[in-house]
């Protein structure tokens, strides 16, 4: 609280776009990962080749968290896409059960889907369209995916440690090229 001209001014609490109230803002650190033909420049992530094998990725990997409820929010816009089946947002499990837990990928034509299971999450993620993604991971309970503010998927979330990633990542059945710009990245916890 600040006093300005004799009046008490209270800054509004930061609120998340989805998931109700009570969120506390986070600022996790990240590392940029670039492998194969993956290129990251600021918040632009590209796969510059059409290779359908090998480790092709350009991503940000955020700090690991254990327990609690954690929300990610970010906007992506695909600026060019010659390939298909590229993961854009991931929730990964960390040690001791490390590996991909949730991967949101895009097919040419704009279908967003969950890589594990193949469920359609949304459509309309076409070149030039800005899309908001929120994931809420209540560790040990549920993992929820929202697209443009609408709940699209709820699955069980096992106990353990997790971290968030976003960028461009070739799935096992995918290939580039693709370029996606990410913006307005925010994190919260409860």
Estimated structural class: mainly beta
Summarize the helix and strand pattern as letters. EEEEEEEEEEEEEEEEEE
Radius of gyration from CA coordinates: 17 Å
Can you give the helix content as a percent range?
under 10%
- Arithmetic mean pLDDT: 92
Would you report the number of β strands?
Answer: 18
What's the level 1 CATH class? Mainly Beta
The amount of beta strand, in percent, is over 45%
Q: Which regions have little confidence, pLDDT < 50, spanning 5+ residues?
A: 1-13
CATH architecture label name: Sandwich
Shape: globular
Overall tally of domains:
1
Separation, N- and C-terminal Cα atoms: 22 Å
Largest sheet: 8 strands, antiparallel
Continuous helix count: 0
What name does the CATH topology carry?
Answer: Jelly Rolls
Structural summary, described in words:
By secondary structure, the chain is mainly β. The chain has one domain: Sandwich (Jelly Rolls), CATH 2.60.120. It is built from no helices and 18 strands. The protein has strands spanning 2-4, 7-9, 24-26, 30-35, 38-41, 44-47, 57-62, 65-66, 69-81, 84-93, 99-106, 112-114, 120-122, 130-138, 142-147, 150-156, 161-175, 178-189. The strands form three sheets. Strands 3, 5, 6, 9, 14, 15, 16 and 18 form an eight-stranded antiparallel beta sheet that branches. Strands 4, 7, 8, 10, 11, 12, 13 and 17 form an eight-stranded antiparallel beta sheet that branches. A two-stranded antiparallel ribbon has the order 1-2. The model is unreliable at 1-13 (pLDDT under 50). InterPro entries: ConA-like_dom_sf. It comes from Amycolatopsis samaneae.
């Amino acid at each position: 609280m600040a006093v300005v001209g004799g009046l008490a001014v209270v800054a509004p609490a930061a609120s998340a776009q989805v998931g109700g109230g009570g969120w506390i803002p986070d600022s996790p650190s990240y590392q940029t990962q670039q492998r194969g033909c993956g290129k990251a420049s600021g918040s632009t992530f590209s796969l510059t080749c059409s290779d359908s094998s090998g480790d092709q990725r350009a991503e940000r990997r955020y700090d690991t968290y254990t327990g609690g409820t954690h929300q990610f929010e970010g906007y992506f816009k695909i600026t060019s896409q010659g390939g298909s089946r590229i993961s854009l947002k991931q929730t990964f499990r960390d040690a001791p059960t490390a590996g991909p837990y949730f991967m949101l990928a895009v097919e040419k034509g704009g279908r967003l889907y969950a890589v594990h299971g193949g469920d359609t999450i949304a459509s309309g993620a076409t070149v030039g369209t800005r899309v908001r993604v929120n994931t809420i991971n209540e560790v040990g309970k549920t993992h929820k995916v929202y697209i443009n503010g609408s709940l699209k998927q709820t699955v069980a979330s096992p106990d353990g440690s997790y971290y968030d990633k976003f960028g461009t990542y070739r799935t096992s059945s995918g290939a580039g090229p693709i370029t996606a710009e990410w913006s307005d990245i925010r994190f919260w916890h409860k």
